[in-house]
Amino acid sequence: MSDRTIADFIEWAVRRELDEGRSPSISNLKAQKLAYLAESLYGYRSGDNLADTSFQAWNHGPVLPSLYSALKGNGKEPLSPHTERLTIGPDLETIYEIVWDDFGDMTASNLRNFTHRIGPYSSYYTEDRRGIIIPFKDIHSAWRDFIDAVEQRERKKSEVDTSFPDFPVPAPAIAEDGWVFDNGEARNCWHSLEHRD
């Protein structure tokens, strides 16, 4: 694809954030990390590159230098959407949606920390040195690690004990009407009876 496609993704994300009524949060730092994750998913699915130039391992994480240059005039301030809406093909929009749904709610610093810990960045980073390329193949193959980490985060956020208590139910348990259950089925029946409206 091209670096323009990456810039379009960031414009799409800024517009999406506004449409969802969220406070603007996409700074250059957050844009870089979202772009990196979009590259990962796109390459994982297609085997091709979303950007036409390489991501590099800078101090604050992976950076696409062309995107950095385009956004640096904004400093640390959140980006504003352009007035016109972009027209995006359904394949790319699917990629954008997945990345936004999984990572759009993370802050810039959370994304920075996330991409430092997960994926290939740490293998290429050298302190205070720019220009070290993170190979596309490594970015693309990291998608599974990124999504596994998100799923772990979601499980931790909603950690609820879903195990069912052990009731002393002999196996097999025979109900009065002659049905025979093993212990698991008996527990499920008991659970559904307990939680009837």
Task: Detail the topology: elements first, then pairings.
Layout (H helix, E strand, L loop, with lengths): L2 H17 L8 H19 L8 E4 L2 E3 L1 H7 L18 H14 L4 H10 L3 H4 L8 E2 L1 H6 L1 H15 L15 E2 L5 E2 L1 H12 L3
Antiparallel strand pairs: 1-2, 1-3, 4-5
Account of the 3D structure:
Helix content is 53%, strand content 7%. The protein is built from nine helices and five strands, in the order ααββααααβααββα. The chain has helices spanning 3-19, 28-46, 65-71, 90-103, 108-117, 121-124, 136-141, 143-157, 183-194; strands spanning 55-58, 61-63, 133-134, 173-174, 180-181. β1 (55-58) and β2 form a beta hairpin. The chain starts with a helix and ends with a helix.
Summary?
The protein is mainly α. Helix content is 53%, strand content 7%. It has a three-stranded antiparallel sheet with strand order 2-1-3.
What fraction of residues sit in β-strands?
A: 5-15%
Radius of gyration: 23 Å
Structural class: mainly alpha
Number of DSSP helices? 9
Largest sheet: 3 strands, antiparallel
Shape: globular
Keywords summarizing the entry:
single chain; 197 residues; mainly alpha; three-stranded antiparallel sheet; 9 helices; 53% helix; 7% strand; globular; disordered C terminus
